[in-house]
Amino acid sequence: MAPALIGAAARTRFAPLPRVLPCELPMSAIDTFAPDRMPHADALPQLVFDTPALQALAKRSALNVTSELLDAWLARGHGHRPCLIGSDGRCWTYAEVAEQVNRMAHVLVSQMGLVPGNRVLLRGANSPRLAMAFLAVFKAGGIAVGTMPLLRARELGVIIDKAQISLALCDARLADELQQAQADHPVLQRVMLFNGGEGSPLEAAAAQQPAAFDAWHSAPEDIGLMAFTSGTTGQPKAAMHTHRDMLAACLCWPPHVLKASADDVFIGSPPLAFTFGLGGLLCFPLHIGACAVLIEKASPDVLLAEAARHGASVMFTAPTSYRAMAGQAAQHDLSPLRKCVSAGEALPAATRALWLASTGLNLIDGIGSTELFHIFISADETLARGGATGVPVPGYRAALWDDEGREVPRGTVGRLAIQGPTGCKYLDDPRQAQYVQRGWNLTGDAYRQDDDGQFVYQARTDDMIISGGYNIAGPEVESALLMHPAVAECGVVGVADDERGQIVKAFVVLKPGHAGDEAMARTLQDFVKQTIAPYKYPRAVSFCETLPRTETGKLQRFKLREAR
Ligand code: 3UK
Asked: 488 alpha carbon to ligand 1 midpoint, in Å?
């Protein structure tokens, strides 16, 4: 067993102390790349373990996230229960998933040469096999690096360089771009393909391996995941998470807000490479012994059809996806659906109202981030109110700061600062000092706290529009526009203006059957003036076919600002 060193700073903990290792590996057989590139102790977030469950977690010495998510269930006689379902409709039980994960862990260690601490790039659309790959890497003590399926060779190359990745497991249908990246980045030594149909290399290799595997006795602070941020500009950042971080997240938002059970069937769109998806569609369902449906291309129509086909009861997707699905929801039998989670972007009140009207379900909104792993402010379906995100999730604390880091009075807009059992640890990145200040995580969001304690989203701090001396939050104008029946989607930004500094400009996608002409522009401007304070109305309106979005569904406002 690895020695317990709870509370010691990660930097000292990873110094080559004489430690007795499982499998009788010499110390040199551990790859210290990640611990060597942790932020300095004074740039780390303060971790707090506020609830009884978190206190118990903080006392654990060895902690492998896969053992907790899978092996613990076999020990409790839960092995015959459904665990993962794929686009092909095949259902894998907990026992079957655990066996496959063990076999794949053996492939990683004995065939691919994985040493604990090595980074393993994972590439594929959501599928049971990709989920097993994450679990196998965790179990063998590797560090999983999920990548978005749409990434090209050049972008994969940046990740391979930054995380010095030597091993990869890749969906055979997405092999081309990775192989191109490998040609330019020889640090990537071995790529094994999966989901390739008959004779698929990873599956064939796994079949030759033993069905049991002793989990690497990860210390709680061993890094298990590098999550590359879905950053819209510049160099990507890698947010590192420990085995304990992932389990801590399972003990916060899921039991206190989601409140799902082993009988639930989870479904959703976020990729497993995005921590919204890794938590919502893998860690959280498995932590409670539930089942997850992992579908490859979860466009709104597919998501609805698959939810109906599998009797999904818990859904995770982004606000725009709920808006797109609302019109078609009535054509599907969604009767088992009882909890729908929205995250990734602010949820407009109009979208909440639309989903409620078409399904009878009140959305559970939650703000999370790659840096904190998952949701830290949220409200369950009984407390949720239009326009507000919710209250701090038990286990997390939230504060609103002014530019000098003093708390602002209730009702005043401030910068959101968060503390909890998880926190930002960028891999070797000076931007650590921006995200973590005085032990708090600054998410880059401007919020206001209302008298009822609910946190109300304003904008990204760098997206605030300052026009004629007024502070205007683009998302508030977007929410107002979305209440107009002709508006399908919209994005609102500030653009430079000689007279007012900036003016509010709206980019609007209309529903079919509406013309984007001057009369419509005036109609929408008047509509906003009547809905919110008139000075916030968009002085410029531009109609377009689509809006620029990231693969995680976020509006790319910087692209709108650049648009002329
Ligand atoms: C914004 C929201 C208002 C906000 C994420 C749930 O989105 C996730 O992670 P990212 O690192 O982005 C974080 C930023 O996205 N945001 C997310 N959710 C909301 N703004 N209301 C919301 N409900 O600016 C935040 O700072 O891509 C979300 C779980 C895990 C995640 N990684």
From this structure: 22
Residue 316 phi, psi dihedral angles, 5° rounding: -120, 120
Say if ligand 1 is within 6 A of residue 445 CB: yes
Is 4:20 a contact under the CB 8 Å cutoff?
no
Single out the residue of 377, 469, 363, 471 nearest to residue 418, CA to CA: 377
Q: Any idea which residue has 């998510």 for tokens?
A: 69
What tens digit of pLDDT does each residue of 23-64 get?
455 555 799 999 999 999 999 999 999 999 999 999 999 899
Q: Confirm or reject: Cβ of 457 under 6 Å from ligand 1.
A: yes
Cα–Cα distance for residue pair 213/206, rounded to 1 Å: 12
Whether the full predicted model's pTM is greater than 0.85, yes or no, is: yes
Distances (CA, A) of 563 to 202, 345, 466: 45, 21, 19
Distances (CA, A) of 349 to 343, 482, 507, 542: 14, 9, 19, 23
| Res 19: pLDDT | 40
User: In whole angstroms, what is the distance from residue 494 CA to residue 473 CA?
Assistant: 9
Q: Where are the domains of the chain?
A: 464-562
Q: Domain 464-562 class?
A: alpha beta
Gap from CA of 345 to ligand 1 centroid (Å): 6
What is the number of other CB atoms lying within 10 angstroms of the CB of residue 111? 16
